[in-house]
């Protein structure tokens, strides 16, 4: 598959996306709403055979963003699925762990540090924060004040 | 401390290694001390598998919230008198990780919470070279 | 954790004398067979992503070279590549070569370190001492170039901080020849050893399908037949201009991972030598004035696998978000696939086979059907070593047998 074919293949799911963006020839961003992320990741992982790299959560101005990074190594391309979670009070998104077991830890980490809930996650326990860390305090949110707790 | 307690502490100190959130550099340099080039075992310094056998704790890394109770427990289990070596800049004063939300402070603060009279020695550096660690241990034992 | 009487749990953690960091494993066992594995991390969680957002772009490389003391060249390199992509900077040729040299030297010392530790886990302390002895000259070269044995602090946005002095090059090449001879001997000794082959072949198998599912990288993936290597797939630094091979082994067991790592050290020596000989002249850094708003990614091949950094900037002098993915973060959960169904005495070496960037542990609580037995980390090591001894006997090695 060359770059053209890859882009055509991605265009076939464009009805589920808000927009397709390219910051560089090998860096593709697919923006979507939080509800669609499961289907898109399934498509990328199983049909395109992209390699899952990691996910990033970001506390943006009026929403949370969860970016799933996929790598397509034959073309040295990164395909990033950017999901917007509009509800800031109760952030909820579909988990991709049922299709990609390698995403289990990062989803638990995002739950710890951003308080994002993952639907259908098989093992949602605390991963990186201390056992005595207070529930509901998310240290990477923008409203968290450093040294407030300790 | 009585004469014999000091004597027992200073001859052939056995050390136990605790990592409380270090980046592996200091830990590797500690293991480096034990391997052929530096080989501190010829001086009687031995890395042991349990704090109960140890005369000294080698603590590396600024203490994270999750590691704090484990460090205090390891110190409580260590045979007294016991010297705590804070190895590396992070263990001495939290270093570059000081503003982190998950840090509770340098090693001396955490140890002194449970034992105000603890003997603490500092070996600064990022990471301290094996030579620095050996000379730090020798200097601390001489000072006791 | 709740312990049900029907499910004995073997807890390894969270302090262990063998490796370095705190880590807590719970192996659910049935007799001697591991049926499930659960890992609790966080003992080493320092909040680096949080601290990074309070630092300026120039200061961040110092922080992230302390993510891991062994990968202290690859993490900053991945970060500065992301920032350079954001700023649209082209790095001078000489800087690209210097970066390559330091990264490859780091790879040699990391892989040799792993071989030593792996030998230690299965009770082969000769390999441990040998490997750590042969690692010292590499640290000397690094100290000569960068001024420190670890934590080189040599990468900055736009280039490198320290140059390799041309008068050093013949000396370094000579030392590389010495190291190559010794490594050749070590590799032959390790790979031809019948005991090691019997002990490591077929142990802790991670299949190709599992490797894809768990998204593992680096030698762990290449040992399972997944041909990924960032140095080739997304060429950075000077790797595109040098002649080298990607080592792939299809078996997926611990021995395959050892083969990949050992042969990679030879490749790394080859790359370093070529890069030193080809080292072009010119400046080693360009000035970067402003980082425009936007987002970018950088990744490098660290000794343990792919290091990935995501940076978002709003045009100010600090990153708004900086995400770090260390290779062990995806390699460690693959224990679930490779450990389940294996023997307890194989667990230590399987856990060690991905070269996890944290330490084993000191206290294991073996919880039996009704009673609780506490034994320390030595017990697991003893089990592993006893198995090696048993194999030696089966293969006809007598007590006191000495190699010529």
Question: Which terms would index this structure?
Answer:
heterotrimer, A: 150 residues, alpha/beta, Beta Polymerase, domain 2, five-stranded mixed sheet, two-stranded parallel sheet, 3 helices, 7 strands, 21% helix, B: 144 residues, Rossmann fold, 6 helices
Give structural notes.
The complex is a heterotrimer of chains A (150), B (144) and C (404). Chain A is α/β, with parallel strands linked by helices and 150 residues long. Chain A has a domain at 3-90: Beta Polymerase, domain 2 (2-Layer Sandwich). Chain A is built from three helices and seven strands, in the order H-E-E-H-E-E-E-E-H-E. Chain A has helices at residues 3-11, 37-47, 104-114; strands spanning 19-24, 27-33, 51-59, 64-72, 77-85, 92-94, 117-119. The longest helix of chain A is centred in the first third of the chain and has 11 residues, at 37-47. Chain A is globular and about 50 Å long. Chain B is globular, with a radius of gyration of 14 Å. Chain B is α/β, with parallel strands linked by helices. Chain B has a single domain (3-143), classed as Rossmann fold. In chain B, the strands form two sheets. Chain B has a five-stranded parallel sheet, with helices on both faces. Chain C has 404 residues and is α+β, with helices and mostly antiparallel strands. Chain C has two domains: 9-44 and 333-394, no CATH class; 48-329, Orthogonal Bundle (Cytochrome-c3 Hydrogenase, chain B), CATH 1.10.645. In chain C, 44% of the residues lie in helices and 14% in strands. Chain C has 15 helices and ten strands. Chain C has helices at 48-52, 60-64, 74-87, 93-121, 125-146, 169-191, 194-200, 208-213, 218-222, 230-233, 254-278, 328-331, 335-339, 347-353, 377-394; strands at residues 9-12, 24-30, 33-40, 155-156, 159-160, 294-302, 305-313, 319-325, 363-367, 372-376. In chain C, the strands form three sheets. In chain C, strands 3-2-1-9-10 form a five-stranded antiparallel sheet. In chain C, strand 4 (155-156) and strand 5 (159-160) form a beta hairpin. The longest helix of chain C has 29 residues, at 93-121. Chain C is globular, with a radius of gyration of 22 Å. The interface between A and C is large, with 34 and 37 residues.
